[in-house]
From TrEMBL:
It is found in: Cytoplasm. Pfam families: DNA_pol3_beta_2 (PF02767). One of its GO terms (cellular component) is cytoplasm. Residues 85-167 form the DNA polymerase III beta sliding clamp central domain. Belongs to the beta sliding clamp family. This is Beta sliding clamp. The keyword Cell membrane does not apply. SUPFAM superfamilies: DNA clamp. GO terms for biological process: DNA strand elongation involved in DNA replication. GO terms for molecular function: 3'-5' exonuclease activity; DNA binding; DNA-directed DNA polymerase activity. It comes from Brucella tritici. Gene3D superfamilies: 3.70.10.10, DNA Polymerase III, subunit A, domain 2 (3.10.150.10). Keywords: Cytoplasm, DNA replication, DNA-binding, DNA-directed DNA polymerase, Nucleotidyltransferase, Transferase.
Length: 180
């Protein structure tokens, strides 16, 4: 969730579908994005340079509570060196299943071993696995999270040649949710 300062009086909430906002910004010509209430009932007007659009936002009440980070409890975390995560993901990503009927194969399973992270992906016909040693000691984990295909795609772009830290958290309430 992104929050930003405005020069308008008062406060409010708006949920703009990411695909529509991204498409608008890709075509935008100006350096400033203006979001205001549109003349049409329930719509939001976007302006950037000469480009104008009217979008019907999502209902704030429909926004999932996954953005409420208060209930998260850290479970596991590990650091990785420059380019290491990308090296792992680039190797296993071609084997991620794209079949909607086999949704449980649509991601990369990360196995956290003693001081090592193992990534595994399969589409039912091909299997790819690659591992790397962690910078600091890592306690083995009895759970193996499956990171969804779309998340892997985003992480590959963000991680590129970077080094960083990955934290797995789990909500303390029922049903349990994981965050990556």
């Amino acid at each position: 969730m992104t929050t930003f300062e405005t020069d308008a009086p008062g406060s409010g909430h708006v949920v703009i579908p990411l695909t529509r906002l991204t498409a608008f910004l890709a075509a935008a010509t100006g350096p400033t994005l203006t979001i205001r209430k549109a003349k049409e009932a329930g719509a939001v007007a976007l302006t950037a340079g000469r480009l104008n659009a009217s979008i019907v936002p999502l209902s704030v009440s429909d926004l999932p509570d996954i953005f409420d980070l208060k209930g998260l409890k850290p479970v596991r975390a590990f650091d990785f060196g420059e380019g290491v995560l990308t090296h792992l993901l680039d190797f296993v990503a071609p084997c991620i299943s794209t079949e909607e009927t086999r949704y449980y194969l649509n991601g990369v399973c990360l196995e956290l071993l003693d001081g090592e992270v193992l990534g595994v992906a399969t589409d039912g016909h091909r299997l790819a696995t690659r591992s790397f040693k962690t910078v600091a000691p890592l306690e083995a984990w009895d759970r193996n999270p499956i990171i969804p295909r779309d998340t892997i795609s985003a992480v590959r772009k963000l991680a590129a040649k970077a080094e960083g830290r990955i934290e797995f958290s789990r909500r303390t309430r029922t049903p349990p949710h994981s965050s990556f």
